[in-house]
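Subject — a protein and its fold

Tokens — whole-number codes for backbone shape
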Amino acid sequence: MTTKYDVYGIGNALVDMEYEVHDDFFSKYKIDKGLMTLVDEQRQNELLDALGGTPIKQQCGGSAANTVIGVSQFGGKVFYSCKVASDPIGNFYFQDLQDNGVDSNLQTQNRHSGITGKCLVMITSDAERTMNTFLGITQTISRDEVNEEAIKNSKYMYMEGYLVASPSGKEAAIHARKIAEKYGVKTALTFSDVNMVKFFKEGLLEMIGPGVDLLFCNRSEALAFTDTNDVLEARESLKKMAKTFVITMGENGAIIWDGQTFIDIEPYEVKAVDSNGAGDMYAGAFLYAITHSHSHASAGKLASLAASRVVSQFGPRLKWDETQEIRNHILGEK
């Protein structure tokens, strides 16, 4: 069956603002390093004032947004459902999606007044990324933003775990999953962050429902979700939740379950400067490969190389020519 889109994504719409900081900034402002923390607008503005100056990078983001943009950069066709306000930063977000070849509900829906969400990404010299996020209007994303026609015409419906933190966001994700199941569209989920697993496990189980076709998580998320300290136990437990899955292991590569066999993916050695977006790019490259008739093993190699390139620079994206070079090198596509 011919589909219009390779991947339909749903997630939070956040403008990513990246800054370089030292560890003492975290102690001074009582910030939990290495985690994503939800904050109110006043707290985020306090931190932005303390940082001052222009961010290293500013671009449309949110976990699932970064992933669908990754799919698009590799040559896939994508649609993204999200919610931004009718403010200048919302206009910026919409234009950035357009510039990256992403169709979205924003093209046809009227935007409401309010404040578009922002994610303050703080990068330290050890390449760790710490995020303080003010959700703004994306906290009210709901089934109204879900596009049934776009899901129906996609190969995969991909949802981010961060949606579980918002009651209407969780409902929207479940609604999108049920539409996908109705039309025989494959479903995919990323846990997004270990805090989502620790504090919203029951909600994630609701999003998973009877099971997803593909699950993305890192080692800490897999262990927390399965209540184990052993990744071998965790991967057996995850089989009950997903037909296929990927557990990323940082410098130790990744473990892939393709439905029949476990595949170990070797890491690419790299000097990391910024881990922001590595998991999102991994998912984007992986989804591109499996929606273009490549094996899970090839998808894992492509994703591993793409993620290694992302962490060696600032920001969650690669340039177009970089994705083409990676694609040609791993998949032999021209």
In short: The first strand starts at residue 5 and ends at 10.
